[in-house]
Amino acid sequence: MKRSDFFYDLPEELIAQTPVEPRDSSRLLVMDRDTGEIEHRIFRDVTEYFEPGDCLILNDTKVLPARLYAQREDTGATVEFLLLNQKSADTWEVLAGPGKKAKEGHRFLLGNGLMKAEVTEVLDDGNRLVRFEFDGNFFNIIDKIGEMPLPHYIRQRLEDKERYQTVYAKENGSAAAPTAGLHFTPELLERIRAKGVRIGYVTLHVGLGTFRPVKAENIENHHMHSEHYCLPVETAVIINETKANGGRVFAVGTTCIRTLESVAKSEGEIRAAEGWTDIFIYPGFEFRCADCLITNFHLPESTLIMLVSAFCGYENTMNAYKIAVDNRYRFFSFGDAMLITQKRPGITG
Q: What is the DSSP code string of 31-57?
């Protein structure tokens, strides 16, 4: 398929600049995975689509305040570092800009001296390896001096950093939020549990590669950057028991579904696993784990809208997006949500 097959017109005013309050009051477009039939609801109504014996799988990654501003020790020039992947206790792969001011051997001060840094290597793709020098806990320090790395299309300042975290965020490591999870509140999760639904967690640290533009016109020529994931034993047990008992697996977000399907593909089954994935899911992909998907509305021609198209069909997806635009849904990270659901196996009518 071509990249341009996944283009749609989106008025700029539909790009959400701020999150809604409370979290679960966003709108919810519900689509039947098989028929394409659509309903319009509020996110808190999502409980009505679960049945006892289903399970809900969430990505518990925590977004780092990964945008850091550093000053060159020799010139005072300001350089922006965006933390991407932790390589060791004190070394990270970072995106640096402007790059000409962050060459190998250059040294920096951050947070008025709370931290120092040195560029130790310039990688082939232009990213840098940076070694940080600090006293105490690295994550506590960047929580004081760093900013949330909001996507480029969000131009308003975020007053509360926690609104770019899910309420169940736990594992430090993401450069961006798994935004489908931003709609959940602790109370909503309890209501879902009360319906007899088990909740499990995976971790996939979201890298910027997820949002990297698809430049190849033939989408099969696009290559995804790797992201680190972990699927623990407890979650594997929940999923396998759910499947064995005829229940459905609800995946929250494209990061969650990429984790589940990476494990299913590489291991041949769902079991505890940890590693790196560069899985690229587009139409024609065979899903082995997820039955239902909760997701946001994604950028035109992105790998994320391609994943959704693989999950519920290209025509269904593009029709749903057209309806969402026509009905003035809010799009992207702080926008509204979409539930793609299907009946349990063996249930008809």
A: EETTT--EEEEEGGGGGGG--TT-EEE
Give residue 85's pLDDT band: very low, low, confident or very high (50, 70, 90): confident
Distance CA(315)–CA(63), nearest Å, equals 33
Tokens of 220: 């099969």
- In whole angstroms, give the CA distance from residue 27 to residue 41: 6
Q: Residue 348 pLDDT > 70, yes or no?
A: no
- CA distances (Å), origin 264, targets 59, 222, 285, 288, 316: 16, 22, 12, 6, 25
Give the DSSP H or E segment for 258.
Answer: helix 254-267
Task: Kindly tell me if the per-residue pLDDT of 349 is higher than 60.
Answer: no
- Residue 52: exposed, middle, or buried by beta-carbon count in 10 A (0-12, 13-18, 19+)? exposed
- Can you give the residue ranges of every domain in the chain? 3-63+160-341, 67-145
CATH of domain 67-145: 2.40.10.240
pLDDT band at residue 84 under the 50/70/90 scheme: confident
Confidence of residue 301 (pLDDT cuts 50, 70, 90): very high
Whether residue 22 is preceded by a cis peptide bond, meaning omega within 30 degrees of 0, is yes
pLDDT greater at residue 31 or residue 224: 31
How far, in Å, CA of 68 to CA of 46, rounded?
Answer: 37
According to CATH, the superfamily of the domain at 3-63+160-341 is QueA-like (3.40.1780.10)
For residue 76, what are the contacts with CB-CB under 8 A and spacing of at least 6?
A: none
